[in-house]
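Lecture notes, unit on protein representations.

Consider one protein chain, 104 amino acids long.
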Amino acid sequence: MKWFFLTGSIIAIISVVTGWQTADWMLTFKISGIAFLVPMLGAGVFAGGFPGGGFGHEHAFRHESKEDRWQRGDWTKNLFLLALPNLIVLVILVGVAYMTTSSS
């Protein structure tokens, strides 16, 4: 579990350092945005948040075992932890951009 958060933190740090070195904060926004969206979409799939194919959530997970349900929950939590540091970077970037544009 901590490895997912650590990996997300490393990606977030790399994106911030890359944006700082190139003076292109849009690059940081793109890297962190992708590193946030992809795990969150995966977490949504594992959580059953996107039912499709004409079946509801109850049909898709009705016949799974308790162990499968726990494993699916663990993957959902781990993918959320992978995305969390990048969400923090995105919130800070948007906040700084808002503060600098609204004060001028």
